[in-house]
């Protein structure tokens, strides 16, 4: 049922700043956003981290924060990041970082504390999905310890048992929980450990960087 959907902090390795058009405060969603502290001058306010990328973050605030305000956000695991508020649409604010951050370092730091909630991480990866005798190559949208979201135009029924294979990872059994607007949501039968998820994301990042650098090296050799 829609009321059982859970919205969590969304992580992205994109260089793009979260835009105000991405605000999705829908009714019937349980929110499990990561908690942070917003420092403005000598004032400290509670905030909830809704989206975070290398370039900035979207936070839910409990005070008015004018555009142009310099701010520091302290995450629960202690990493302070400084930036400037570039948009505000009550109660949400977009903060552009002074310097790009490594999102995976932020995510990895949470391994040192108490058991965290399951974060969602945006990905750009080809995923193989097997539904009985049918096999599909699909684009992944995001992944968490408990499941993932895929672009899928094929008619795959909700409740269907499938097997999903991510690059360089063993196939995992999953169930289709929802299907709409050309996308499907899967729940893994067995959750990924956070360390496994972080290591896979780092491996994908390193492989993508190597693939980008290789043509440049080949070109320099000619």
What would a concise description of this structure say?
This protein has helices spanning 103-109, 194-220, and strands spanning 6-8, 10-12, 30-32, 34-40, 43-52, 56-61, 70-75, 80-89, 92-97, 120-131, 134-143, 147-151, 161-165, 172-180, 183-188. With 222 residues, it is an alpha+beta fold. The strands form two sheets. Strands 2, 4, 5, 6, 7, 8, 9, 10, 11, 12, 13, 14 and 15 form a 13-stranded mixed β-sheet that branches. It has a two-stranded parallel ribbon with strand order 1-3.
**N-to-C SSE string, H for helix and E for strand:** EEEEEEEEEHEEEEEEH
Q: Assign a percent range to the helix content.
A: 10-25%
Characterize the overall form. Answer: globular
Average pLDDT score: 82
What can you see in these coordinates?
The structure is a single chain. The chain is of the alpha+beta class. It is 15% helix and 45% strand. It is built from two helices and 15 strands. Strands 2, 4, 5, 6, 7, 8, 9, 10, 11, 12, 13, 14 and 15 form a 13-stranded mixed sheet that branches. Strands 1-3 form a two-stranded parallel sheet. A hairpin with a 6-residue loop joins strand 13 (161-165) and strand 14 (172-180). The protein is globular and about 60 Å long. The model has no long low-confidence stretch (mean pLDDT 82).
